[in-house]
Amino acid sequence: MSIYFLVLRIITTSKISSHRLPTWWFGAATTGWSAAVYPLKLLYCNGPELGARVVRRRRVIGRFHGTHNHSKCLQRALERAEVTCAQKGLRLTQLRRQVLALVWDSHTPVRAYDILEGLRDKGHRPGPPTAYRALEFLQDAGLVHRIESLNAYVGCGDPIPSHTGQFFICDHCESVAEIHDLSVEDDLYRNAKRLGFLADHHTVEIHGICAHCRTNN
Q: Are residues 146 and 93 in the same domain?
């Protein structure tokens, strides 16, 4: 680990201009750290195994789901949530855990109203603000993503490291696949800079028809 601390110290204390660095350094415009040292920040905080995952240009986080063992899928999601919250110093309360389970209960986007109904079926009587606060917590923790075009939520299959995904949404079965492609982020923020636009966040959502629906329809 000493080599990672050394490189991090050199980068953060030197006057290296960010435009001389390769584009894969610019992976997290929303973090409080300099975008230029983001991969090393992850190495510093979480070790080389996690940092090595950050610098991958492209990765598939969630696929379109066919036949699978859903109980194991749900259990893995809840276990990842426990680990993620522990690493980030966050508290995964029983209510937040139940809301996350309801999001993962279906591999299609879930609306807040459906989550309220699901909680009521379990004997809870929360008001809408309670459900929205739980969803906001899960979203901030990277455990769920909001699909803007549907005003609905999907679970994230790989919440560490934090990321802004790109989503493929099937308009027939409403299933969602997620990828994380740093080149997409690079191009968006590079073009925003050319336009003099300060980008706060972005969402990439592509609607169409998945392979399963094309084959069976």
A: yes
Amino acid of residue 170: C
Dihedral angle computed from the Cα positions of residues 138, 142, 147 and 151, in that order, rounded to the nearest 10 degrees: 20
Enclosing domain of residue 45: 23-55
Last residue of a domain, one of 151, 175, 195: 151
Reported for 39-44, long-range contacts at CB under 8 A and 24+ positions apart, including other chains, are: 40/4, 40/7, 40/8, 40/11, 41/8, 42/161, 43/4, 43/8, 44/4, 44/5, 44/8
166 membership: H or E segment, kind and range: strand 166-170
In a domain, 165, yes or no: no
Give the predicted TM-score (pTM) of the model. 0.70
pLDDT, tens digit, 9 for 90 and up, residues 171-192:
998 899 999 888 898 899 999 9
